[in-house]
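A reminder from the course coordinator: this example appears on the midterm review sheet, so study it carefully.

Given structure:
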């Protein structure tokens, strides 16, 4: 996680994110975002999730740095992937010092780097686990087309990391392309949350449903209004006593009792209120988490 040093509504991302609201940057807004960040980190830590929180860079002019999952991903084979970002300000979020710290100070083993950022020169973008919802078990990369998700960049990712792409179109209630796949769906070990209503092509809906069911996932289906409240923007994590499902307070409140019961079969629901971050950056709690699947440098120890 990256604690935002200069949080603001980013004008460079407004055009491609219908979930984001414009606002003039203020110190009060930035302070509220920092409090929300701290609350998320505290709630996760209290649930036994191992959180690495890095300070943002005030001099970097990175209003969206609270969302590190878009520029980097960490994989179980020791691979680190760097991603091409649409907004120039978001490209400045990429930080080698964070990657080096995970390896040198926290005991993770990094054996390979895959750099996809050269796609930026050709206006091809793939914004990490925002653009990609990864089924690490079945090796499927779900991705909805948008200005931030380019199929050529996706195919290079899939080839480098041995995933099968499953590409589709997703639209919100106004017929606008959904900017990131992780707003439409989430995939856990034994469950998936998905807004099938947002998937424009009936054949794609059928394909995605079949793929999820064949991989043994219990599908928790949500509606468009729930998607707008970030009900699919959640992440399964390892906590002290088993799986934790992290989501925002607004996402949790959007779910009905039946959907909550479905999710609770698969983990403890852990939530935090992040209204400033959701409203003015157009992303939610899952986007704040760049999950680490890297192995330990010394297999006899746990990274820390």
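Designed residues:
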């Amino acid at each position: 996680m990256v604690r935002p040093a200069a949080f603001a509504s980013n004008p460079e991302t407004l055009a491609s994110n219908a979930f984001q609201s414009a606002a003039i940057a203020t110190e009060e807004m930035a302070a509220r975002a920092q409090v929300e960040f701290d609350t998320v980190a505290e709630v996760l830590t209290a649930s036994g999730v191992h959180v690495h929180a890095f300070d943002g860079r005030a001099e970097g002019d990175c209003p969206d740095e609270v969302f590190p999952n878009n520029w980097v991903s960490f994989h179980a084979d020791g691979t680190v992937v760097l991603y091409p970002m649409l907004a120039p300000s978001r490209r400045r979020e990429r930080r080698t010092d964070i990657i080096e710290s995970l390896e040198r100070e926290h005991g993770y083993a990094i054996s390979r780097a895959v750099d996809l950022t050269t796609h930026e020169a050709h206006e091809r973008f793939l914004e990490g686990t925002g653009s990609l919802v990864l089924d690490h078990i079945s090796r499927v990369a779900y991705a909805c087309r948008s200005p931030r998700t380019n199929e050529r960049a996706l195919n290079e990712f899939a080839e480098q990391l041995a995933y099968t792409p499953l590409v589709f179109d997703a639209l919100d209630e106004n017929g606008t392309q959904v900017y990131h796949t992780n707003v439409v769906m989430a995939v856990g070990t034994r469950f998936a949350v998905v807004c099938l209503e947002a998937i424009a092509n009936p054949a794609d809906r059928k394909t995605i449903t079949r793929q999820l069911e064949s991989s043994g996932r219990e599908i928790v289906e949500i509606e468009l209004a729930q998607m707008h409240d970030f009900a699919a923007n959640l992440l399964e994590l390892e906590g002290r006593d088993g799986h934790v499902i992290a989501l925002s307070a607004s996402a949790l409140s959007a779910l009905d009792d039946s959907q909550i019961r479905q999710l609770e079969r698969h983990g403890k629901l852990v939530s935090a209120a992040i209204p400033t971050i959701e409203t003015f950056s157009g992303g939610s709690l899952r986007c704040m988490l760049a999950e680490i699947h890297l192995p330990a440098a010394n297999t006899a120890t746990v990274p820390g």
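Residues 131 and 181 are 5 Å apart (CA to CA). The chain has a mean pLDDT of 93.
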